[in-house]
Amino acid sequence: MPSAEVLPEARRQMEICNACRYCEGYCAVFPAMMRRREFTDADLDYLANLCHGCRACFPACQYAPPHEFAVNVPQALSALRADSYARYAWPGPLAALYRKNGVVVAAATSLGIALVFGLMLALRPEALSTPATGEGAFYAVIPWAVMAGTAGVAAAFSLLALTIGAVRFWRGTGGGVAKGGAAAQAAHAVLTLRYLGGGHGGQDGCNDTGERFSQKRRRFHHLLFYGFGLCFASTTIAFGYDHYLHWAAPYPLTSLPVLCGTLGGIGMTLGCAGLLWLKRIEDPAPTAKAVLGSEYALLWLLLAAAATGLLLMAVRETALMGSLLALHLGVILSFLVLAPYSKMVHGLYRGLALLRSATEERNDQ
Question: Which of 88, 111, 129 is the last residue of a domain?
Fold first, then answer.
């Protein structure tokens, strides 16, 4: 839905919630809501990205459907959150990639894989069937300059787009100057996924399957979040090995980058699989159907990145290594290009919303 529809609906529901205040202790959204008597568009974008979608407020709400007020805060804020991703994206014309995001991710991933296979066939066609082992084996399949140059350009563009999008979000939602200590408080909320704990002090969990509480979503998010962090650490360490110690990949199975990458890949695989499973069984009532495509697309893309990385590790000394390396690099290339135009931005914007929430909380003291 466009902003002209989601903003008024989110405003209507927040005004009802602000009059009721039954859910005031459920998450960070409701204390932030209670600090306001009116809700500007910027306020609504801020509240939407502060919401973690734990759904605890939905089964507790006396005005939820079939009541005539039809209050469904998780659904309304989810739709507005997705709309805000497009409005703050940079460059503006690429915001169109958020529309039908599932199709965009599938098409871009296919193109990324085709591009890497094409480069490999053009430069080293024999790598498809000839095993390459020992130091520098990966570069025998795809030259280092091609591999590093392609990934480097994609990563630089992605980082630039994410940074500009984050600045636009912070300014657009009235972030202002963060108060001292707020950053540590927000970081703690991010690292512990505090607000995926649901209501009642965050001890019960989310309401994925109706009124029953569960910590499953929080645990699967932890596996994905820290698994991704370990994979990033693996890449960073491998960069240091290659550029400063002049040790060429692939590295021994017991080396630090391989251990980090293996544990990270397992964590990402389990986390993605678990979250995909939860989406299949979750209560559809508080779900904004328009955003499901982008959510499924990101999870499948991350799962493909983790799974192909693990498979590459398993077959790296066989004739399959060349094909698996091209497949894995194609998926990674697609992820780097699409990160600013997928649900991947939710972590960045949510972290900034938590920083503003912590600052407001400290201003109240």
Answer: 88
